[in-house]
């Protein structure tokens, strides 16, 4: 396989400082970033470094539980719960080298929280952090609504996390330590190249735990083709890396770009980070009954439930095609979404 080509590209850094007074300027910056790169870094967003680090410690306490405990809250088709080495990306046909636990606010989490006695305080700390991530997201939603000519509350209503129809997710991720002395098999990634299918993703990373790579500015994101020039994104303390997902791309009639990204498996003993990597991704998903259609009506109106289902089906179909191409055989597979 040809080696990846890299380019140093700067991702716009957008400050939410003094939001209500600077809303016009912030809207302009967000819209520009969404129309061009599809990625941007958020600073002065209102979640402190300490709050982020505390949530990372909470995440570590979850992942350090035995697998036999974590498997009591397994991943479900409602896009919540724990999985390990089970997410196969259509771009690679291999399972990501990781475990993850997805939490939601509403009814989809039924039976998927651990008992309080197993991890005291875990649920309340997680929900508190999720609510903070939601407040940041709502600021972005106001700006994107303005950019597209909708009323300020339009996207906030469609992503109301206080309703049982909410599908928004906080995903805790743990990529395993990699042994420097063992060669990494061809095609293995900590997370294979993909686009997210949500509205917008807020990604929290830990300093020093590098590996995220992005391929900004795709014209379309309906296929699983991998862009050829990638850019490494080093974690900056306290910064939230945001990317537009397929939902906002569709809701903007393709004006805003959903972009490919991945997490590289370390291979270069000099430059890469081989230790365990923790990250957290907050996926803004529409309520199941939200109606999705852009201002120019480029696509048929669909509900949040239909959009999610179609994204999962598309993932599954692409995965199946990839597997058949790789193995030349038909296979049965399950796919973990987002
Ligand atoms: O862990 C990361 O840095 C990226 C995770 C991601 O892209 C995802 O889970 O969709
Ligand atoms: Fe992603």
TrEMBL record:
The keyword Iron applies. Residues 165-286 form the Fe2OG dioxygenase domain. GO terms for molecular function: metal ion binding; oxidoreductase activity. The keyword Oxidoreductase applies. Keywords: Iron, Metal-binding, Oxidoreductase. One of its GO terms (biological process) is small molecule biosynthetic process. Belongs to the iron/ascorbate-dependent oxidoreductase family. This is Putative gibberellin 20 oxidase.
């Amino acid at each position: 396989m040809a080696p990846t080509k890299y380019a140093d590209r700067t991702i716009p850094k957008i400050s939410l400082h003094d939001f209500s007074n600077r809303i016009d300027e912030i809207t302009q910056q967000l819209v520009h970033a969404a129309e061009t790169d599809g990625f941007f870094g958020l600073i002065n967003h209102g979640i402190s470094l300490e709050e982020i680090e505390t949530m990372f410690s909470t995440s570590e306490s979850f992942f350090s539980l035995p697998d036999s405990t974590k498997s009591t809250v397994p991943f479900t088709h409602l896009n919540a719960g724990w999985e390990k080495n089970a997410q196969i990306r259509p771009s690679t046909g291999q399972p990501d080298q990781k475990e993850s636990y997805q939490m939601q606010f509403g009814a989809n989490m039924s039976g998927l929280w651990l008992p309080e006695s197993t991890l005291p305080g875990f649920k309340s700390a997680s929900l508190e952090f999720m609510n903070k991530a939601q407040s940041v997201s709502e600021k972005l939603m106001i700006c994107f609504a303005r950019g597209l000519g909708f009323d300020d509350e339009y996207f906030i209503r469609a992503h109301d996390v206080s309703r049982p129809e909410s599908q928004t997710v906080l995903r805790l991720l743990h990529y395993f330590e990699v042994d420097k002395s063992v060669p990494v098999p061809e095609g293995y990634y900590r997370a294979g190249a993909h686009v997210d299918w949500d509205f917008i993703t807020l990604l929290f990373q830990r300093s020093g735990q590098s590996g995220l790579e992005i391929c900004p500015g795709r014209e379309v994101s309906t296929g699983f083709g991998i862009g050829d020039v990638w850019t490494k994104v080093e974690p900056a303390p306290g910064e939230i890396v945001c990317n537009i997902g397929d939902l906002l791309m569709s809701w903007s009639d393709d004006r805003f770009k959903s972009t490919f990204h991945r997490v590289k498996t370390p291979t270069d003993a000099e430059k890469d980070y081989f230790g365990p990597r923790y990250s957290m991704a907050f996926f803004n998903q529409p309520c199941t009954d939200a109606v999705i259609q852009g201002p120019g009506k480029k696509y048929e109106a669909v509900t949040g439930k239909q959009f999610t289902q179609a994204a999962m089906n598309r993932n599954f179909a692409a995965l199946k095609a990839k597997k058949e191409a790789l193995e030349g055989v038909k296979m049965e597979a399950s796919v973990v979404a987002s």
